[in-house]
Amino acid sequence: MTRVLIVDDSPVMRHYVARTLRMTGMDFAIHEAENGLVAIDKACEIRPELIITDLTMPEMGGRELIARVHAAAGLGSTRVIVLSADRSPALSDELMKAGASDYLIKPVSPEHLKESLMKIIKVEV
Amino acid sequence: MTVCVKAPEARVVAAALEQVLRVMYFCESVYQGGASLETPVLSTSLTFQGTVRGVFRLMVSERCARRMTADFLAIEPADVSPDQMDATVRELANVACGATMSFWIPEATLRFSVPADLTRFDSAQRFEHCISVTEGLPEIAVDVLLQ
């Protein structure tokens, strides 16, 4: 079972992403966190294969979370997908260089999210 | 560097909101122009800064917010809690702001704040950019205030 950690300060977005994951028909163990600070502790505990995170959150956002994940012992194989409403042209490059496996711009359709998940899970998990 | 520009035109707001509502909330929308929303109205705002700076405000009639929340979470409207409605409207504001700014100034590099807690008002106010979602009446409004 693939362990996935959904990180977003919006509970409705966590619900939306979790529902989309279930719609893929794949077997996921879904965990949630409301910001990067909570997420890094949870990630060290559950060792997720995949983190799907928002970019802008209180306490700790997606940028710092990516850096912490890559620096943490035991999370070397954890992949990170960033979901954000921020469409700044340079952001995608910045996040990919920082270690994100994919960057999806909101509004993201269930089909698009599923496509990204399948690509990353198939290739890297 | 901050540049001086006018606020976004109607076609920009209409295109941005149409995309957000269709892709994420599965709603067909119609741009209505200047109008008032049915009260009570829920409102939130977020700031943006970078190439331009200002405030993006989103207003939604409470009835529309309840229905959108129910659809988004796949639950009955009567089962929607105030917290769920709050989170849905704030998320809509976040995504609508990103889309509007991108349609308006595609090359802009911006940082957005977290949407503010909702405020609720009962008095009718007129807004420049209104959108209807399902009932043909103005239900959602946005405005962009440049600083």
| Fourth-level CATH superfamily of chain B | CheC-like
Instruction: Note the run of SSEs of chain A as H and E.
Output: EHEHEHEHEH
Q: What is the typical, i.e. mean, pLDDT of chain B? A: 91
Q: What CATH architecture of chain B would you give?
A: 3-Layer(aba) Sandwich
Termini Cα gap of chain B? 14 Å
Stated plainly, the CATH topology of chain B is called: Chemotaxis protein chec
Strand content of chain B: 25-35%
Determine the strand fraction of chain A and express it as a percent band. Answer: 15-25%
Query: Biggest β-sheet of chain B: count, sense, barrel?
Result: 7 strands, antiparallel
Distance between the termini of chain A: 11 Å
Oligomer: heterodimer
Question: Based on DSSP secondary structure assignment, what is the total number of beta strands of chain A?
Answer: 5
Structural class of chain A: alpha/beta
* Sequence of secondary-structure elements of chain B: HEEEHHEEEE
Instruction: Show unreliable segments of chain A.
Output: none
Q: What is the percent of helical residues of chain A? A: 40-55%
Shape of chain A: globular
Q: Write down the Rg of chain A.
A: 13 Å
| CATH top-level class of chain B | Alpha Beta
Strand order, sheet with most strands of chain A: 2-1-3-4-5
Q: What's the gyration radius of chain B in Å?
A: 15 Å
Structure description:
The complex is a heterodimer of chains A (125) and B (147). Helix content of chain A is 46%, strand content 22%. Chain A has 5 helices and 5 strands, in the order E-H-E-H-E-H-E-H-E-H. A 5-stranded parallel beta sheet of chain A has the order 2-1-3-4-5, sandwiched between helices. In chain A, helix 3 links the parallel strand 3 and strand 4. The longest helix of chain A is centred in the C-terminal third of the chain and has 15 residues. Chain A is globular and about 30 Å long. Chain B is of the alpha+beta class and 147 residues long. Chain B has one domain: CheC-like (Chemotaxis protein chec, 3-Layer(aba) Sandwich), CATH 3.40.1550. Helices cover 33% and strands 31% of the residues of chain B. In chain B, strand 2 and strand 3 form a beta hairpin. In chain B, helix 1 packs across helix 3 and helix 2 packs across helix 3. The interface between A and B is medium-sized, with 24 and 32 residues.
